[in-house]
Specification:
heterodimer, A: alpha+beta, Aldehyde Oxidoreductase, domain 3, Aldehyde Oxidoreductase, domain 4, seven-stranded mixed beta sheet, globular, B: DNA polymerase, domain 1, 2 domains, 5 helices
């Protein structure tokens, strides 16, 4: 196999710059004459702004300009837009209150943006910010969804009738109710899916510059999707047409969803850059991240599973309350609906499903997609219910899954909640997971733990996710206000080297390597002769960016489509040069050959001819070998798998130790197994973090208690074990040209449920069958005390 | 704000720059010297992305004033490789896919070298994990970082 072919674990080319300190992240860029912005944020959750006095601050050393919500309102620029409109019951659309980048009337969460100070240095901006006087009249804070729904609750948005954003449902309630009425057994759980903070290690940053000569703006920003930011900010907020606005997302230090969204600072800096006529740079500190990066999860759910006497699932009935926070972040409304409720079939043949979702405004930081986005919440609910049902019915937990899994022979499978699964061998993943984790040997490991006074548990999560949201028309019908295709340009240069321009964005995923492998394999050139360019709206034709594990399935497929066009054109050139019919030209491994002969030309010869078209069919064919393609998927992709966690709990301290974690995943075909394994490892720790330690907490005044790494418990190296991960490639995606499904989120989707199920398996020996994430030592110890007492 | 001329050796080169007294070492490196390889990931000395070596000891450069380092010898991520030849720790990170977004990587590598230096005679997984407690990585789940450090330990102590 040549170096870099599809399926080989070649080392990443991007590592060289990251390992030598020569990566270029937004905060590493500096422009001549640059000023610095400091965001002045609300320290209270809910208050009316009575007055703002910037006079002392204006006079402070180095201050260039101070802008407040009044200035934002006076300029009649738009609010930050929401990219997804959910239509609720009775065709009632969601409430979509104004989301100003700088607030003038009232603040709606701790961290809401009151003003921006622009100064010669960051320190001067920060010092001056201290001198701004705000007269804020505090209002009662709406913190929990119970608060939000309460009779007479304070309104987060005064122009709305209540704090309800939408009341949405999927499925037919009466039909599902009727099934529950006749069921032999109903398992019911009340679950909290705790709020999380994504915390990429690079804080967000932005650098905006206005060029009066061309009336042109350039924004460098920490984004997963620079074209989306250009579209949202240009078209909806600042009215800057695309050709006057360049958005660059260079090296980005992790995203995990939270860098998808269009943030206030991007708009504020771009807007202000024209006023100050100098570049402006803003870099978040970690406190800013905690107060303003969109947070994740935060569902409160009641779920019920109806079973027949043999343990077959008959119906699923779910009521979920989802916290939107103070404003609608870019894709927030879609997460608890189309990325959650539509996944509630899981891997099972549950014939009837009903889910109602109420989304609420509260005086907390906005919530949006965080790695997994809706799918971890769905997996957690289903897999908790399944293991609880197993306990209640006495059917062994792997057996109850086997009885209900959708079989390979039933693919494609239409679920009752809109999705049509195309592929997957769920039994095989389960069997592989059980074998890898020595499931059968668990009883003896548990006995050993017991001898040492410890409680041991094993837990499973089998999951399916929907990735690469598509097709655009379907997403549009569900409320998406954007297309969900991807684009690619494959530019074969005269000497045969290749530059690929992709609309996908990498911020850790290794696209520069994987996509190069893809192109090297497709065009039969060496990996080293392929360069992958991304992250700049002036260089890339268009792009929808990277989220929802879509880059390879959608972006990679666009590259394949562009390569197909290159080959098609190359065949015409080859036919001319080899004096054969186009239909007789075959292309394989970089060589165009007249079928059945030894007459052939390499792609390098064809490329040179395309750019030096002396002997060339110029009447029929344009010169050049440079093709662009847009790929709109036919369906979602459906990665799936089986995760097995094993824990040991010290009942004296409540400390949960994660002994092992085995993950068997079906990601379809794999381009670079090393990178895929790395994606799983990282995803697992984010799921394990949710299950055992991470939790974003507010007090009853809406103060963010977990506002720094001192308080928010991010997993460290000694909190997790080594992992055993494996993949099954036997059931590739049936509808994209690569057969790929996506691997970015899987770890996070399975891990939370698997670990919690393991904790409950251990605690079950002491009669404890319910615990909410995170299962901290404090919570576990308390549960054990209560069970003992 | 009062300023002082702060001088030190950075990656073998004598440097000198005016700095406010409150200037942190990481600001001095990034903003004063334009050496952006060292990163800032938090403001509470938790994440370790800013770790550099001062007189051979790994130190979080966000939690020490530049003037405290006056006259000392600083090594940053930019100073590890020998021309095109990566330091064994950098090479082990590359070889073991111990980095994804790369943002924590400079601090992670500098801390990792410290771990090997402190545990020359023997190093095991448990020790690596414990001694990595000062560095966050949100991408890799630490699995491959631990593997890389153990592999570099072999190389560096061979």
């Amino acid at each position: 196999m040549p170096d870099g072919s599809i399926g080989t674990p070649i080392k990443r080319r991007e590592d060289q710059r990251f390992l030598t300190g020569t990566g270029r992240y937004v905060d590493d860029f500096n422009r001549p004459g640059q000023t610095y912005a400091w965001m002045v944020r609300s320290s209270v959750a809910h208050a009316k702004i009575k007055s703002v006095d910037t006079s002392k601050a204006e006079a402070a050393p180095g201050v260039v300009m101070i802008l407040t919500g009044a200035d934002w309102a006076a300029d009649e620029v738009g609010g930050l837009p929401c990219g997804w409109q959910v239509i609720g019951k009775n065709e009632i659309p969601m409430h979509e209150p104004l989301h100003p980048a700088l607030v003038a009337d009232k603040v709606r969460h701790v961290g809401d943006n009151l003003a921006v100070v622009i100064a010669e240095t960051k320190e001067q901006a920060r010092d001056a910010a201290e001198l701004i006087e705000f007269d804020l009249e505090e209002l009662p804070a709406v913190v929990s969804m119970v608060d939000a729904a309460a009779e007479g609750a304070a309104l987060v948005h005064d122009d709305l009738p209540s704090n309800l954003c939408y009341d949405w449902e999927i499925g037919v309630k009466d039909e599902v109710d009727a099934i529950f009425d006749k069921a032999d057994h109903v398992t019911k759980l009340d679950l909290i899916n705790n709020r999380l903070v994504a915390n990429p290690i690079e804080p967000r940053a932005a650098l905006a510059e206005y060029d009066p000569a061309g009336d042109h703006y350039t924004l460098h920003t920490t984004s997963q999707n620079p074209h989306v930011i250009r579209l949202l900010m240009g078209a909806f907020v600042l009215s800057i047409p695309e050709h006057k606005l360049r958005v660059v997302a260079p090296d980005v230090g992790g995203g995990f969803g939270t860098k998808i969204y269009h943030y206030a600072e991007e708009a504020i800096l771009t807007w202000a850059s024209k006023k100050v006529r100098r570049p402006i740079k803003w870099t978040a500190d970690r406190s800013d991240s905690f107060m303003t990066d969109a947070q994740g999860r935060d569902h409160v759910t009641t779920g019920e599973l109806a079973l027949d006497k043999d343990g077959h699932f008959l119906g699923l009935r779910v009521m979920t309350n989802a916290n939107m926070g103070g404003y609608l972040s870019t894709f927030a409304p879609a997460i608890p609906t189309y990325l959650y409720a539509t996944l509630l079939a899981g891997l099972y043949k549950t014939p009837a499903i009903y889910c109602c979702v109420n989304a609420w405004f509260t005086n907390t930081v906005p919530v949006d997609a965080y790695r997994g986005a809706g799918r971890p919440e769905a997996c957690y609910l289903i897999e908790r219910l399944v293991e609880q049902a197993a306990r209640e019915t006495g059917i062994e937990k792997t057996e109850i899954r086997r009885r209900n899994f959708i079989a390979v022979s039933e693919m494609p499978y239409q679920t009752p909640v809109a999705l049509e699964y195309d592929s997957g061998d769920f039994i095989r993943n389960l069997e592989d997971g059980l074998e890898a984790s020595d499931y059968n040997g668990f009883a003896s490991r548990r006995a050993d733990s017991e001898k040492n006074g410890k409680l041991r548990g094993i837990g499973l999560a089998t999951y399916i996710e929907a990735c690469g949201i598509a097709p655009s028309a379907v997403a549009g019908a569900l409320g998406a206000r954007a297309g969900l295709f991807e684009s690619a340009e494959v530019r074969v240069h005269p000497t045969g080297s290749v530059t690929v321009f992709t609309g996908s964005h990498q911020h850790g995923q290794g696209h520069e390597t994987t996509f190069a492998q893809l192109v090297a394999d497709g065009l039969g050139v060496s990996v080293d002769s392929v360069e992958v360019v991304h992250g700049d709206t002036d260089r890339i034709q268009f792009g929808m960016g990277t989220y929802g594990s879509r880059s390879l399935a959608v972006g990679g497929s666009a590259i394949v489509k562009a390569m197909d066009k290159v080959v098609e054109k190359g065949k015409k050139i080859a036919a001319h040069l080899l004096e054969a019919s186009v239909d007789d030209i075959e292309f394989d491994a970089g060589t165009f050959r007249v079928s059945g002969t030894d007459k052939e030309l390499g792609i390098g010869d064809i490329a040179l001819t395309a750019y030096v078209p002396h002997n060339y069919p110029i009447e029929e064919l344009e010169p050049g070998l440079d093709e662009t393609a847009f790929y709109d998927p036919k369906n979602f992709t459906y990665p799936n798998g089986c995760h097995v966690a094993e824990v040991e709990i010290d009942p004296e301290t409540g400390v949960v130790g994660l002994c092992s974690f085995h993950a068997i995943d079906d990601f379809g075909k794999i381009i670079n197994p090393m990178i895929v394994e790395g994606q799983v490892h990282g995803g697992l720790v984010q799921g394990i973090g949710q299950a055992l330690m991470e939790n974003c907490e507010y007090d009853d005044q809406g103060q963010l208690i977990t506002g720094s790494f001192n308080d928010y418990c991010l997993p460290r190296a000694d909190d997790v074990p080594n992992f055993v991960v494996g993949t099954n490639e036997g059931a590739p995606c049936t509808h994209n040209p690569l057969g790929v499904k996506g691997c970015g989120e899987a770890g996070t989707i399975g891990a939370g449920a698997a670990v919690t199920n393991a904790v409950l398996d251990a605690l079950g020996t002491r009669g404890i069958h319910d615990i909410d994430m995170p299962a901290t030592s404090h919570k576990v110890w308390q549960a054990l005390q209560q069970s003992n007492g | 704000m009062a300023t002082t001329t702060v001088s030190m050796t950075v990656n073998g080169k004598q440097v000198s720059a005016e700095a406010e007294n409150r200037t942190l070492l990481v600001q001095y490196l990034r903003e004063g010297l334009g050496m952006t390889g060292t990163h800032v990931g938090c403001d509470t000395t938790q994440c370790g992305a800013c770790t550099v070596h001062i007189d051979g000891m790994p130190i979080k450069s966000c939690t020490i004033l530049a003037r405290q380092v006056d006259g000392k010898d600083v090594t940053t991520i930019e100073g590890l490789a020998d021309g095109d030849k990566l330091h064994p720790m950098q090479e082990a990170f590359r070889e073991n896919h111990a980095l994804q977004c790369g943002f924590c990587t400079p601090g992670m590598v500098m801390s990792a070298i410290g771990i090997v230096d402190r545990n020359k005679d023997s190093l095991d997984e448990k020790t690596v994990r414990e001694e990595l407690e000062g560095n966050f990585c949100r991408c890799t789940g630490y699995h491959n970082i631990v593997k890389a450090i153990l592999s570099a330990h072999k190389e560096m102590t061979a």
